[in-house]
Amino acid sequence: MELVNVFLKAAFIENLILSYFLGMCSFLAVSKTVKTAFGLGLAVIFVLGITMPINWLIYTFLLSEGGLIGMDLTFLRLILFIAVIASMVQLVEMVIEKVSPALYNSLGIFLPLITVNCAILGGSLFMVSREYNFSESVAFGLGGGFGWFLAIVALAAIREKIRYSKVPAPLRGLGMAFILTGLMGMAFLSLLGIDPAAF
Amino acid sequence: MGLLDYLKKIEPDKKKSPFLHTLFDGFFTFLYTPETVTKSGSHLRDGMDLKRTMIHVVIGLQLCYLFGTYNVGHQHFVAMGEYLGILEGFHLKLAHGLIKMLPLFIIANLVGLGIEFWYAAKRGHAIEEGYLVTGALIPLIMPPDLPIWILVLSIIFAVVICKEAFGGTGMNIWNIALMSRMFVFFAYPTTISGDEVWVSGFEALREGAATSYGYGHSIFNWLFGILDIPQFTAGTVVDGYSGATPLSLAYQGGWEAVTAAYTTTEMWWGMIPGSIGETCKPFIIAGALFLIVTGIASWRIMLSMVVGAATMALLLNAWGATPFMDVPWYYQFYMGSFFFAMAFMATDPVTAASTNTGKIAYGFLIGFIGMIVRVLNPAYPEGWMLAIIFMNTFAALLDRLVIDTHISKRLKSA
What we know:
The complex is a heterodimer. Chain A is mainly α. Chain A is globular and about 65 Å long. The longest helix of chain A is centred in the N-terminal third of the chain and has 30 residues. Chain A is built from eight helices and no strands. The N and C termini of chain A lie close together (11 Å). Chain B is built from 16 helices and no strands. By secondary structure, chain B is mostly helical. Chains A and B meet through helix 7 and helix 8 of A and helix 8, helix 15 and helix 16 of B.
């Protein structure tokens, strides 16, 4: 039950992109079509879901004071987290290139850029500051990834739809994406404030 | 055909004065069908153009307007402890309702249509009639004492950011009337939530607070004086009156607390405090049936929304962790604005999903999420506005999913 709470909270109530505005660059740039948004969203779920538990293990057993080394090395967490994320992204990249070259081409530079996607690093840092345990960090990674996936796919569907609208010329493209993101954030406010643990 | 000839003669030139021409065109198409016809592509022959579709919704709202206006007055006098019967003091209640209601209605339409006219002239297209419905809906979903300047700001936000930026009528992603309410809700929360805002005409809604009457009331008093019937007299809020809505009572103490203050008959017929048009369930259902019969609104969305809300309410009954969750599921429909949201907000054909399967999923999820927000979220008293805006976000995605599965199914069987 506790895990479900963490998952739902990360996915809907405190959505990484729409409440914290993390991972904005790829959110805006790769949301032109549903197909690529879908691919990138899945990649983010995968990377978040894998890196969170690995980072948790590293943080608990290597960096924190009660770990194997026995020294407080938590100041190294940024570097180590980034290294883990980068190697995971490399893995994802190789898999996607092999399995679906078309998706690989359409994602372009944004696939390696997941490395510096703030949603992923932000997720790991949230995990540290909220003191999640191992299973909670898995649930938080998957939930956060799912929320990000849902948001980018919804945005892509809307952007595909408004391609046939008479949007004023200065707003076409990125301008509209910004307005849409803001209004989507407003729509996601509906669930803000629910505390699943309170019942 | 004298009138038509005369109108054609005074038609302003489109090039020389675009604004006057847009204005002329807007009123001309009220009277006559425009002579422009579709020249290419597929076309459907139907007298049911955009303007007539919109007018049907406005007709469906009339009963809510009548009752809503009267109920504003009724609640005012109930708070003073006078004229407690629904038909006692009829003229006073109606007059008070009109004084509160007319400014909201007039300002909402002036501002909205003004923006609409300005954009139409600026962008060189005919006036689009979409605002007719929005302008009719907005006064019904606001509290009666809402300051006019907040109303104006919210309408500017909704029409400019949520509609004109998307390309005008029929292009918006989120429901415009709800977006204006959402703006007030998040920017000026004290004016639209809590127990104190739903009953109008007092300095503040607490025991012993005095009435605050303006010029409108003096004018009506003068009229009533001539007719020699009871006039508005200053009074105070009666002792023990809280003005709490059924929903906030239910949140505090469950169904017992609600029935201690209101009877089910009162709740069903709408003699309770609330947004202006949302309270009277039978009249809203009559409007909903009218929309279904004329084919304007989708029965799929309405039905699946009822099913979704009932499902979630049953689940919450089974859970039963707080008094609010224990409210019997069928009584959940007696409180709040479920029916109004179902009949007039969720069924907006522009922002809802447009495939049939998508509509069913869309309605069901609105019912489901709305009930979650209403019962589980302590931050918001009512969930339908938020649930509908939330699902508007996903309507395009639902359509896309339905179409994609359909295509892949056909490809497989081919």
